[in-house]
Every structure is written in C-alpha cells, then in structure tokens.
Amino acid sequence: MADDVKVETDPRLTVGARVPMLWVGAFVIIGVLLPFFLTGYSTFQATLIMIYAIAILGLNLLTGFNGQFSLGHSAFYAIGAYTAAILVFHYNWSVYATIPIGGIVCFVAGFLFGLPALRLEGLYLALATFALGIAVPQILKSSHLEELTGGVQGLDVFRPEVPEMLPLTLDQWWYLIVFAVMLLMFWVAWNLINSRTGRAMMAIRDNSIAARSMGVNAALYKSLTFGVSAFYTGIAGAMAAIVIEFVAPDSFTFQLSILLFIGMVVGGTGSIWGAIFGGFFILIIPNFAEEISTGLSYAIFGIILILIIYIMPSGFAGLVKFIKAKITGRMRQRVE
User: Fold this and answer.
1) DSSP per residue over 67-128, as a string?
2) How does pLDDT run across 186-237, given as a tens digit for each residue?
3) Model's pTM, two decimal places?
4) Degrees (nearest 5) of the Cα angle 288, 57, 84?
5) For 280, how many CA atoms within 13 A lie in the half-sphere containing its CB?
6) Which of 83, 142, 168, 316 is surrounded by the fewest CB atoms within 10 Å?
7) Cβ neighbours of residue 300 closer than 8 Å, sequence gap 6 or more
C-alpha cells in the first residue's frame, strides 16, 4: 500500500525554488562580465560600490538583524583601512594578506566595544557609537601616532601589478577580487541569518526579554554581532585603502557613518542583497547632486533622499518584495 501512494508536487513550488538560483546565476555572470564593458573610471566606481555594499551589509547585520543602533561604523572602516595601509607601508606585507587581517582586527575591536555597550540601548548606544566615530579620526591625527599613521598626511598604498598570465587591467583585476569577496561575504551573511545564531540575533531584535526567557544569551550574541558587523566593515575598509591607494583621517569622518546608515535604509533594513543598491546610492547620488549644483549639492541630495524614502519606505528591497508579491498573486489567480 505504501508503494502505491504518490505524492503530487505543486509545479509552482518547483519553479519558485528555481527562480532565486536563476537570479543568483545571472547576477554572477553579469558581475563577472561587467568590467570588460566599462571604462577604467566606471570600473573603479563599480568596485567602490561593492566595497560600500560590504560595509553596509555589516551595519545591517548589527542594526537590521540584531536591533543595535550604530552611528560610528566609519571608525571600523578606518581601522580596517589603516590596518592594511600600515602593514603594507611599514612592514611590506602583501596587500592580499592585509584584507583578512583588517577584518580580524576590526572583529576584536567591535567585540571589545560591544561588551561595555551591552548596558546601552537605543539613543544611548547611538551616542556611544557616535563618540567612537568622532574620536577615531582625531586619534589617527595624533602626533603620538604620526610615525605609524602618517598623521594628517596619511599613508600611500601601492597595488601590485596584475599577474602576467592574466590579460586584465589593474582596475579590472581589483574589480574581480572585490566582486569575489563580496559574493563570499554575502553568502556567509545569508548562512548566518538562516542559522540558529541568526534566529537568536533576530529574536533579540524583536523582543530581548522573550529571547532571554527562551534561553538566548543576549549579552554574548550582541557582542558577537557587534564583532561580526565590525569584521565586515573592516574588510571593506581594507579593500578601500588598497583600491584607492591612499588613507588619511579626513576620509573617515562622521559623514561616512551617516552615508553608510543612509545606504542601509535606502537598500532595505534587514535585507542582504539590498546593500548593493545602498552602495550604489551613496556613491552615485552625492556626485550627481554636486554635478547639478555645487553650492546646493546637500540640499539636492536631501530632496532626492526624501523622494526615495517616500516612494520606497521599506527600501529598495521592500519595493522589490512588494512588486514580487503582486506578480505572484496575479499568477496564482490565473492558475486557480
């Protein structure tokens, strides 16, 4: 009898499971081919967009998925960048080796900062991270650290040549490296969010008291999330230092923290892939606003931001989900 039982599978479910993989495959193919159709400067800009996307994703893990508010992620971005620059400039490290080291240093810094910040929530945590973002550039300018950090003059970082067997320009080579790192970081974030640890992170965000009553160690998960978030931002900072080939304290002001936060909101809070759109927004739109009017660039940027938030209150990822739900609903109505 058991052998005669047949389980019917809804064809819509099979197609629905394949669609995300098709989108991922198309994204990877387009991403790999894109630098061969862009100019050198456009390839450089696309590389910076992906770097910002990694930093925004790190902030989103902390704020969007764990509910901890941060206005100081420019500090971790700076720490990652200066870690790479110091290792290359003073100790002749390979630039490739400095990328994970920058992330590890930021993980430790973020975890240690997260420990005393456990007693802070909401606006008080925002003020603490704000203070961190303000303090780090000033520390980097300190005369006591000038021999190490270069003071206000900063440090130069020179990228090595492309391997001779590869017919690529330097911009194309680093675009592909950053693209590969971004895919890896996104994949890790997706697995983290869909794991037991990710569910604990989101439970703390939704209701920390209920999470504690269910046995979740909120203090540990909050500190670890802070460390992981800083790790992502440090990776982004290290790659930015290498791609731009220069670091200086004025490149990591509080304005960068605000831009990362804007990128997270515009891309979609609680979204992984929305960070890419957020990176595009914070790099392209300020330049677009400045091209329209140099004196009124901030006003134009503010107007564009207000319009974007009005049109997409849940971010770009939320808009895509809304459109997808509408299309799926209509398809189901036709099938039924």
Assistant:
1) ----S-HHHHHHHHHHHHHHHHHHH---HHHHHHHHHHHHHHHHHHHHTGGGG--THHHHHH
2) 999 999 999 999 999 999 988 888 888 888 888 889 999 999 999 999 999 9
3) 0.91
4) 85
5) 11
6) 142
7) 289, 292, 293
